[in-house]
Amino acid sequence: xxxxxxxxxxxxxxxxxxxxxxxxxxxxxxxxxxxxxxxxxxxxxxxxxxxxxxxxxxxxxxxxxxxxxxxxxxxxxxxxxxxxxxxxxxxxxxxxxxxxxxxxxxxxxxxxxxxxxxxxxxxxxxxxxxxxxxxxxxxxxxxxxxxxxxxxxxxxxxxxxxxxxxxxxxxxxxxxxxxxxxxxxxxxxxxxxxxxxxxxxxxxxxxxxxxxxxxxxxxxxxxxxxxxxxxxxxxxxxxxxxxxxx
Amino acid sequence: xxxxxxxxxxxxxxxxxxxxxxxxxxxxxxxxxxxxxxxxxxxxxxxxxxxxxxxxxxxxxxxxxxxxxxxxxxxxxxxxxxxxxxxxxxxxxxxxxxxxxxxxxxxxxxxxxxxxxxxxxxxxxxxxxxxxxxxxxxxxxxxxxxxxxxxxxxxxxxxxxxxxxxxxxxxxxxxxxxxxxxxxxxxxxxxxxxxxxxxxxxxxxxxxxxxxxxxxxxxxxxxxxxxxxxxxxxxxxxxxxxxxxx
Lengths: 246, 246
Prior knowledge:
2 copies of one chain form a homodimer.
Chain A: E1 13-17, H1 28-36, E2 39-45, H2 51-56, E3 65-71, H3 81-96, E4 101-105, H4 115-122, E5 128-131, H5 136-144, E6 155-159, H6 164-172, E7 176-180, H7 186-195, E8 202-206, E9 214-217, E10 229-233, H8 236-244
Parallel strand pairs in A: 1-4, 1-5, 2-3, 2-4, 6-7
Antiparallel strand pairs in A: 7-10, 8-9, 8-10
Helix pairs in contact in A: 3-4, 6-7
């Protein structure tokens, strides 16, 4: 290196789980990382506020550089690669200049999080740390008031967008199950659960731990559900234990 | 009621997830609940310290009533009912007297937690709230440095104590999988994964987020694993994406 050049240590990329919705369900570590990161990024659907930012809002100091990673919401399609390439380039610029970047993620970053799209583009080139968060799965079980799984039961986590035949195969082979990302797929998912004769052990949860939280038997759930909704199907064994106590 | 009688509102039973090990992975809510509960209970294996208490230790004020729920560790057997009956009676006494009781749980209370044994005995009779926590599942994925599941992949969570034939059936029908409570079952689980030709996509994680954390390819894991260990098997699709970036 010539005279006058300086070496800048790169910043660290943090994937920060902010939990399911209640701002008190952030971890102490998430709060610390957010407090010190000069750059805060978060996903936002086009034309909507960022839920991840709203959850973490009480902990974001004023005056930070903020990057909203805005993606179009096209049902049934994952966002285009070139969109993430462009955001990754912007974030890489901050990291290369030595600034830490905290990417806020709803729930946990590595359980169906859109964080993976930026992680895959940046983790090879910059120090990266993932701060795990309380998942929507744990939150839904907590507010529904019954264990997800216990003892030696198997739990299957199934995305609601799968087609009806695939859903039926997956559910038929499962014991306890959680169906995530239910949203507009609710009627399809409910029909499959009814066909398998499991409607009586299925609960519907939307916006778990948020002010507008709803917990209902699946049979009584509305036909139109928000994206942040989930269906829990207990194992027959668990239902037996829960009923025995009353 | 006659003169001189007073009515005491019962205390609240809290099931508090304290996360996977790093005390900074407690949620703000867990810290608040622990700070105000006059009675703190936690599981402890006979002859060993309580891991849940150790994780929460920096947040437990001095002078609280503490109840160690001590259970014998008999491989392959779940603790006897009368043991939990006796602890439930002790805890019910505090709740009836108007004292909140916080039961600390490793990870998340409703994902294979022993909390369920006390929950089933007390939740009918006393106000109960579950504070979800960061699960060992989320923690292992975070320290292993790759998504558990993304897009529309299915995740199967399988207890290691299942017998080899059952493990094989469950794994054969799965895409991404997490095998929990591995411990002394490691050689059996590894043999099944090898038989299915998935050794190259399996990682072994022990004591995630703790000082003695280990992350290894499953092929290189030791034969004797601690109870708090897990095996992550990626979906073939995820492995392809992860390899594409290098």
